[in-house]
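cron nightly-structures :: item 1 of 1
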Amino acid sequence: MKFQHKPVLFDETIKSLDIQPDGIYIDGTAGGGGHSQAIADQLTTGRLLSIDQDPDAIKAVTERLKDYKCSVIYRANFSEMAEVASNLNFAPADGVLLDIGVSSYQLDNPERGFSYHYDAPLDMRMSKQGVSARDLVNDLTWQQLAQIISRYGEDKNARSIAQGIVRAREQEPIETTLQLAEVIKASVPAAVRRAQGHPARKTFQALRIEVNGELDRLSQGLDAAFSVLKPGGRLSIITFHSLEDRMVKQRMASWCTGCTCPPDFPVCVCGKTPKAELLFKKGLAPSEAELEQNPRSRSARLRTCIKL
């Protein structure tokens, strides 16, 4: 299957970076290379570093950017960006882009085991390395599974789903995506099964986040990305669910916070000054036209800050 990913908020994201022809840019989640190519198209003497942890993505973006002399491609997780950028002389940078979460290719490729729409080995590893979703559902206690589903899936049926998984695996190991989806479906109340949307959606999201350590990597990646920016540099981040967006929003707010002294103090004694300012006061959401063309974009938000 060809690596294809339909970038959400594409024009808004590229515009938010305010790309300079001689600038240095980092695409920390290169995917199929759509954003990377759009950045490279605007560079003359500038340079672009494209990073991704997925070996399929690295192959795709390498092919896509093979004729761009400004391009350097490196396989790593974006949380390692500071070290990679330093080693490859891409710091300080004029702009960094992060498109967080699972790509359309990963969702739509049955072999990757991310989706409950296809029957495939239960995997969900973006890097194709380490512990898989299959390992989690067959090895963890129901209490551990319930905690993951509740925390990362925000599913109020986490306890019954986790207990249903453990009961099912006592009969036979849970090996495939559809096998797990059916177990989840059988473990929730009838009203949930009748509701709009598949009852397995939140559990699959939770397992994917746990398998890939997504929120820990995002926290590390935010600090890494901000650290490599030069003054005036821009950090643009696209998120796709509330847990990610909340973290990005709070981290950017902390960078933009100045003096925290009580208002009745005559002078500042905390010495805190803002490190950044927001380009948009609120995150940008997809337009109605984009929602119609790409329903998956509904939960996406774009947030951008400028380093001071």
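cron nightly-structures :: done
The mean pLDDT is 94.
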